[in-house]
Amino acid sequence: MIMGNRTDSDIKKLLFPLIKMKNANISMTIKVGEDEDEDWEPMGPTPMPKIPTLRHWDFKLLERYPPFYMPICDMCCLCTFGKCDLSKGKKGACGLNIKAQQARIVLIACCIGASCHAGHSRHLVHHLIEVLGRDYPINLGNEIEVEAPIARTVTGIRPRTLADLERILDYCEEQITHLLSAAHTGQEGSYLDFESKALHAGMIDDLAREAGDIAQIVAYNMPKGDEDAPLIDLGFGCIDKSKPVILCIGHNVVPGSYILEYLEENGIEDDVEICGICCTAIDITRVSEKPKVVGPLSRQLMFVRSGVADVVIVDEQCIRTDILEEVLKTGAVLIATNEKMCLGLEDVSHMSEDEIIGYLLRKRACLILDEEKVGKVAVEIAKIIAKERKDRKTLPDLSEIVELAKQCSECGWCNRNCPNTFKVKEAMILAKKGNFDGFIDLYRRCYGCGRCEEICQRNLPIVSMTTKVGEAYYKDLKFKMRAGRGPIKDVEIRSVGAPIVFGDIPGVVALVGCSNHPNGEEEVAMIAKEFLERKYIVVATGCAAMAIGMWKDKDGKTLYEKYPGEFKAGGLVNCGSCLSNCHITGAAIKIANIFAKVPLRGNYAEVADYILNKVGAVGVAWGAMSQKAAAIATGVNRWGIPVILGPHGAKYRRLYIGNGEKFTVKDKRTESLMEIEPVPEHLIITAENMKECICMIPKLCMRPNDTPKGRANKIYHYVDVYEKYFGRMPPDLEKFVRTEKDIPFMIKDKVMSYLEEKGWKPFDKYPQDPTVLY
Amino acid sequence: MDERFTAYIPTAGSNIAHAEITSPSLVKMMVKRAKNPILIIGENLEEDEKEAIIKFGEKFNIKMIKTPEDVNLVVLTKLLQRNEHDLALFTGITYYYLAQTITHLKQFSNVITISIDKYYQPNALYSFPNLSKDEYMDYLNKMLEG
Ligand code: SF4
Ligand code: SF4
Ligand code: SF4
After folding, report:
1. Nearest to residue A341, comparing CAs of A122, A116, A179?
2. Closest CA–CA distance from residue A558 to any residue of chain B (Å)
3. B73 vs B57: CA distance, rounded Å
4. Cis peptide before A535 (omega within 30 of 0)
5. pLDDT at position B146, please?
6. Is B1 within a domain?
7. DSSP A551-605
8. Looking at the domain assignment, is residue B3 inside a domain?
9. Cα(A215) to centroid of ligand 1, in Å?
10. What is the largest CA-CA distance in chain B?
11. Burial track A513-532 (b if 16+ CB lie within 10 A, e otherwise)
12. Strand, helix or coil for residue A345
């Protein structure tokens, strides 16, 4: 059985397959919904915060990490008063200045991201309620008692049933409406308040993701914090082309799960190949071990062009908007399944499955909004189409590539138009002579955006050429990644809580986000490797989790095979898709709650303050691209966790950077205010290259609460990576050494003489229990 | 031909004012006139280019900073915004990254920014035009003359 093949014996196991549950309302004995009065924890000060409720907290953060703006454009073109030139201190016709305008765009981006996740989660919850009923229980097993740390902290609700998730999403949607309306002309006028609203949107995004991921975990019996979640196949090379191939692209597991179910019910799991790109890929492997992950977003165009897929199913988010055109070119069939991406196709949901199959044979593409029907239609049409496309070639072969390259006029516009200025022209020049070295290198780095092709005056199919060379020269495009395990277990938190808070575990590094990498996927794996070897806890989700899997050591092992999936020092944890990012903040919140007994219920600021001061975690979104990534990062920031972006992240236009000066905190033990070293130094910042990113990570894992031993541990890694990558001591080390006890024993002489050179003086005192809430 | 290209980075060109093209002799003049210039050197230079740049810095006694080694570019930009330096020269930084970062100075400071890279950098106030490798070396050598 597809959905019941894992872990505990929850009731659902008895009730599947999903399809049979349709319309059958189950009533449970578990108490339903409305539990506000129930005394699981006294209600804190800020349940269901409105926009201004946490403003005081935001302003604390914004004072320490003032927004830093890099306008992409100094015009505002949002209303018909304008367009207005806002450059160099000018105001727009509505009175808006450039800082507020930048902050407004960030708010809009965060609202897009938050509504995207809220919309996705709403769709999931709505669908699952239809199938399983509102009373369907939320039970993540005995090892996860704090089932929804974000919901508990933000809303004060402890979700027990799908209906509770609905209530949480009602709240999210209400907030997004207010937030987005603040971006209208003639509303908010202060950049700081726009930022506070962006932070609020980020928090809503986090909450909406949690609701969605919990819903899919319980409904599809996805792994519930299982550190031994199966290793699944990843990469172009693992797809069995001899079978009919169905490719799912996007973020929504529902259509994919119906396909798996149909295959299982008919006992034909091994006759059809199911694979995916982006988060749907990860999420269907959380439902069953059978499907394969092609790779991250960056491999989308390449894989579609390769023509391996017979049927392409698109759901929502991060799908190429020209997917229809690209799929049809390969002779494959496209099925759109989501109201958010209809692609101009005819809605055939009312037809029977067989009618739809007939329709597809004639028209090659359609929109099916009844996802249940997608199961049979996709499988049956794939079988037919696969036969028809059997010998179809969609990529040029190597000799044709040479001929195509010979048409290149060497104008160089491809290089110029490539967002990364990759050397396409040089690859063409070599290929003219039958030398594919340029393309081989390009294949590793290129993220398949197609901009080079778009501008080429000779209409050369550059992405297809790159794909073919990749296919021909990278024989070993088969990797392993761990299926998304979902949340971190309470017992794991119990055992790492103290070492993280005191600094003995030097940090938690969360590699998340899209694949807008400056140099290809490998860098993400290299960052992960560096910190796994240093016994950090490395957590991953989404496209970054896939990128980590796409590197092997000399013995052909991926990092997922080399490192355990536990949330512990030296563990590599794949939580799952982008929705599962909530479990990373969730883990930080649980440290506050389970380890330090900070109450969660409606108690946002205190929890965030705890994380900011005590939980040494840093997010890295090396290829952050989308508005969702903007919302995720901003949400993470509101919890007090710093984020590093890749260089393209500068195009988000806004960072939160410390002033390089001392920070002020209150020591709760003595009730006195005091100046401390600037840790964590920034809240969101970009790094220009991988070396710089690696060197920033240990620094941004420092927290005021570190014990001398813990700080020494963190400083040791900071010095060590700096020496490794730049061959020198970190130029700002003196800022982070409080007393001699903070200096690691192994490198004491070296560090002392360096500090003396810098005129370093030890701190008289530092806080025992720091807080910024004063 | 290709060596002369500027990446087509929309973020670099969508502002109202674009950098004025400058020349080695004008750059030298501006440096001489500046009270407190600073030279920011990225990692993307070839050896001979880097050597010439450093010689130039030394000759004119300009404070030199390596990014990201000495400091993160954005953090540096934030420091520059305090107007302690009246002139900032940039070279060797990832093209689109500098293009984006430097807009901060354009909007929020009085620092005169000059790109002395071999690519035209519209978001600086002054920039060399797109140069081939040979032309660039020639420019750098001219900066060292006199
Ligand atoms: S919203 Fe304001 S700044 Fe923007 S175009 Fe309209 S008047 Fe101008
Ligand atoms: S497809 Fe690859 S080479 Fe072409 S513009 Fe995009 S990233 Fe550059
Ligand atoms: S744009 Fe086309 S013709 Fe021009 S160099 Fe690139 S591949 Fe050749």
Report:
1. A116
2. 30
3. 19
4. no
5. 76
6. no
7. -B-TTS-BHHHHS-SSSSTT-EEEEESGGGGHHHHHHHHHIIIIIT----TT-HH
8. no
9. 41
10. 40
11. bbbbbbbbbbbbbbbbbbbb
12. coil
Give all strands (DSSP E) within A138-257, no chain letters: 231-234, 245-249
**pLDDT (mean) for A165-188:** 98
To 5 degrees, how large is the angle CA A351–CA A354–CA A359? Answer: 70
DSSP state of A140: -
pTM above 0.90, yes or no: yes
Give the position of tokens 């709505």: A126
In sequence order, the 6+-apart residues with CB closer than 8 A to the CB of B137 are B48, B49, B52
Other beta carbons less than 10 A from residue B10's beta carbon:
12
Measured between beta carbons, the chain B residues lying within 8 angstroms of A416 are 5-8
Long-range contacts of A492-495, Cβ-Cβ distance < 8 Å, separation of 24 or more: A492/A225, A492/A227, A492/A566, A492/A567, A492/A568, A493/A567, A493/A587, A493/A590, A493/A591, A493/A594, A493/A595, A494/A594, A494/A595, A495/A568
pLDDT tens, position by position, A342-396: 999 999 999 999 999 999 999 999 999 999 999 999 999 999 999 999 888 899 9
CATH number, domain containing residue B108: 3.40.50.1220
**Single-letter code of the amino acid located at A125:** V
Domains of chain A: 54-220 (1.20.1270), 231-389 (3.40.50.2030), 398-473 (no CATH)
Range of the domain at B81: 18-144
Domain count, chain B: 1
pLDDT tens digits for range A662-716: 999 999 999 999 999 999 999 999 999 999 999 999 999 999 999 999 999 999 9
Question: Residue A191 and residue A197: Cα distance in Å, rounded?
Answer: 10
B47 burial (CB, 10 Å; 0-12 / 13-18 / 19+) is exposed
Residue A689: the pLDDT is: 98
**In one letter, which amino acid is A489?**
K
Question: Cα dihedral sign for A390, A396, A400, A401?
Answer: negative
Query: Are the beta carbons of A296 and A521 closer than 8 angstroms?
Result: yes
Answer for the pair A36, A171: CB distance below 8 angstroms, yes or no. Answer: no
Taking all residues of chain A, what is their mean pLDDT, rounded to a whole number? 93
Q: Is the pLDDT of residue A420 over 70?
A: yes
Rounded Cα gap, residues A710 and A695, in angstroms: 18
Q: Is A686 on the interface with B (CB under 8 A)?
A: yes
Q: What is the pLDDT of residue A290?
A: 92
> Residue A456 annotated as binding?
yes
pLDDT in tens, A264-302: 999 999 999 999 999 999 999 999 999 999 999 889 999
Six-digit token pair at A585? 């903040």
pLDDT at A27 over 50: no
Residue A20 pLDDT greater than 60, yes or no: no
Q: Give residue A344's pLDDT.
A: 97
Domain for residue B5, yes or no?
A: no
Note the Cα A530 to chain centre separation in Å. Answer: 20
CB atoms A87 and B43 under 8 Å: no
Asked if B9's CB is within 8 angstroms of A419's CB, the reply is yes
pLDDT tens for A304-315 read: 999 999 999 999
Greater confidence (A366 vs A24) lies with A366
pLDDT on residue A37: 52
For B92-102, what is the mean pLDDT? 95
| pLDDT for res A386 | 96
Do B74 and A74 count as a contact with CB atoms less than 8 A apart? no
Predicted local distance difference test score (pLDDT) of residue A14: 40
Is B64 within a domain? yes
- Give CA separation, A194 vs A123, A190, A517, in Å: 29, 6, 29
Query: Of the candidates A700, A685, A705, A681, which has an alpha carbon nearest to the alpha carbon of residue A770?
Result: A705
Cis peptide before B68 (omega within 30 of 0): yes
Nearest to B25 by CA among B58, B61, B56: B56
Pocket of ligand 3 (CB under 6 A): A 408-414, 424-425, 428, 455-458, 460
